[in-house]
Write a structure and sequence with these properties.
Layout lengths: L1 H56 L5 E3 L5 E4 L1 H6 L13 H10 L8 H13 L4 H7 L7
Length: 143
């Protein structure tokens, strides 16, 4: 009988130890996930800073648009190229916002707005290689 009681206690203790081990493993995995998330966030921040540094070191104005024609990325030189105050071009701007900024300094005349917007839409419609899109950017009816 004493042997049975000891076996039951040992079994209970074994079950408790297994439960504790499982809980410790779950906690270790949770901490590991948080640490991986933190490291991934740090890496993302570092990569963003590198990209920002590269963008700002380019002396030519650089503007990138998404398929909805929103300005996604723009470097500081873009403002300088158009003679606008720093920070005029911002992510999220639409072509009409950009044209308004350019009209405000006389870089674009109202008579050319339809041509310019058609040009933007044609660029957005294209699905060719970047070189064909880049070559089309030499068209400047607004000057």
């Amino acid at each position: 009988m004493l042997v049975s009681i000891l076996a039951i206690r040992r079994s209970r203790n074994q079950s408790r130890l297994e439960a504790i081990n499982v809980a410790l493993l779950v906690e270790a995995e949770r901490c590991s996930c948080k640490q991986r998330e933190r490291l991934a966030e740090q890496e993302k921040t570092r990569q963003f800073q590198v990209l920002e540094h590269i963008m700002d070191s380019i002396s030519q104005g650089l503007m990138m648009f998404d398929r909805d024609f929103r300005l996604v990325v723009c470097n500081a030189a873009a403002d300088v190229v158009f003679g606008l105050p720093a920070g005029t071009f911002r992510a999220g701007m639409m072509p009409d916002d950009i044209l308004s900024a350019l009209m405000s300094i006389g870089a674009v005349s109202k008579s050319h707005i339809d041509d310019i917007l058609a040009f933007y839409f044609e660029l957005g419609r294209r699905s060719g290689p970047p070189s064909s899109t880049a070559s089309a950017l030499t068209y400047e009816p607004w000057r």
